[in-house]
Design goal:
Elements (H helix, E strand, L loop, with lengths): L1 E7 L21 H17 L3 E5 L2 H9 L6 E3 L15 H17 L10 H16 L5 E6 L1 H12 L14 E7 L2 E9 L11
Parallel strand pairs: 1-4, 2-3, 2-4
Antiparallel strand pairs: 1-5, 5-6
Helix pairs in contact: 1-2, 4-5
Length: 199
Amino acid sequence: MKRIILVRHGESAWNSVRRLQGQADIGLSARGEAQATALRATIEAMRPDHVIASDLLRARHTAALLGYPHAQLSPALREIDVGDWTGRAIGDLMAEDQDAYLGWRAGTYAPRGGERWQEFRDRVTAGLGKAVSIPGERLLVVCHGGVIRALLDGLLGLPPKRIIPVGPASVTVLADKPGGMRLETFNFSPDGPVFDAPD
């Protein structure tokens, strides 16, 4: 059996003001650094055998703060590309076209120049599939909220409209067991769950 430990990066500078990042390479806020540091003991107790991370700065920095500055980097684990919405305030998007924004959250709408949900899900699921073949029982993946939601869709059949946003510096654990993948932990944070996390 292999456990896949999924960690969303800590709060970024744009998360703190509720701006969509997509694949923009935005760093952690001071709060995000503190969140990642607070999660370190939890991750150390899980004793990962191998660590991979999205190559975007906020994920790399989170991995380093968790104690893994030399994590293997994977562009396949980047956040969904939000195209023309990159850098836009969520409040403005909701005011302009609430249906479009809610459709995007549900995986049924893609902004101009952005990835379609199915393409994104297939990209990250394939990227994780390569990493799962690495020897060891516990794989740590430091990535993004959208990536975690896409993996839950691709591996467990949980569509995005059925999953709340993943909290910053939170842990979700999947176990690859005989009979299929199983969700063991979702959205765990030392400070308690976050139900309204920014995208």
